Amino acid sequence: MDSAPLSPAPSTITFRDLPDTDLDRALDLLYLVFHETPEDEKRKHHHDLLRTCDRVGAYDGETLVGLLATFRFTLSVPGGELPCPGVSFVSVAPTHRRRGVLSGMIAELFGRCGAQGRPLAALWASEDAIYGRFGFGPATYGATVEINSERPLALRVTPADGPLRLVDPAAAPELLAAYYDRTRTARAGRIHRTDAWWSEEWMVTEDEDDDDLSPPRVVVLGTREDPRAVAGYAIYRTKTRDDAPGMIRLDELEADTPQGAAALWRYLASIDLTGLVRAWGRPLDDPLLHFAADRDQVRVTGQYPALRVRLVDVRAALLGRSWAAPVDLVLEVRDARVPANDGRFRLRITSGTGTGAAYEAAYDPTEAPADLALDVRDLASAYLGGVPVVSFVRAGVATEHTPGAAAALDAALRTELLPHTVDEF
């Protein structure tokens, strides 16, 4: 991937759809850039994934020098969901770095998003410094949590007494998909998982990052009234260690109640011949961090930005989510990449008419003085409710012209739960 271009892309470089006939060339470029020599099975998997993506190729004459692909995702946002291309497979030939190739491919992406009515785009960054200048802001964060399970897990709540059952991973997608779709509406930042995504990304037999991990294990929590119900689940893998008791790697845990979550955590921490539970991607507001009785036993060992979001069409994105409070502000948004987003706009969130009506939103250009000025990347970080706007004001990267404007916007953007996702792509 290139860094900031020294000059515009040369006229010999064009950006167009990458056809199926160029998929092998695209993979050769990808592996060259990321220094990989994959086995045939992994290459086939990448080939199949790319076939399902929308693709932009950068060509110098007839030579492929850049690749950008997007998954056709929808993303949960407060109050609903919006189409959101998931950017992946980004690569630029080492011979063409710093020549505007990445800038050209992202400009092509933004143009397509506008034409196709897709107000958002999202990605996981392999290099943090690159994507902020394109307007992508970290909108979800994850925490790595470790539990010392060499002793019983100490809890402040009584775990749910519903039965636990192990489920065949092959049957898990059909069993869990409806439950996942229901729970994803409670947290912004989560993609809709297709059947293929469940089976080919979440339930793969071998983990390509660690050959020593077991195939996925799936445990489901039922209820006393209906043992076959789904009141929560955990997807995990096990690993033996030569110098210590075995480890549990937790990939996902969902539950209807704190007591249900406690039952699943207690199960994971009590698996025989293991002494460590490592959960690599937990929400920052995970209830475990409050109902664990001993925080020396349950420790947060890392925190990191996860999903980065881009508001390609700020107006459509703002009108496409729900709101928590009324607000009337003039925002001055800086966006050097999408001119339609750049300028001053009046954001008005008003109470709807009728009993139980939701707030109504309007976002229109204005000549009025700005109450708050901020970069589109920082508005993107705040969009899902995960990062307060006041933090950007305190950091000096946003300017509050009217005292209290940032806090008022935060109140309107607030969500009950922090946005979170574990679906890397």
UniProtKB/TrEMBL annotation:
In terms of Gene3D superfamilies, this protein maps to: 3.40.630.30, SCP2 sterol-binding domain (3.30.1050.10)
The residues listed in the UniProt record as binding acetyl-CoA, with positions renumbered to this chain, are: 90-92, 98-103, 126-127
Transmembrane intervals: none
UniProt xrefs under PROSITE patterns: GNAT
User: What residue stretches are annotated with the N-acetyltransferase domain?
Assistant: 13-158
Q: Which GO terms describe its molecular function?
A: aminoglycoside N-acetyltransferase activity
What's this protein's family per the entry? Answer: Belongs to the acetyltransferase Eis family.
What assembly does the database describe for this protein? Homohexamer; trimer of dimers.
Q: What is this protein called?
A: UPF0256 protein
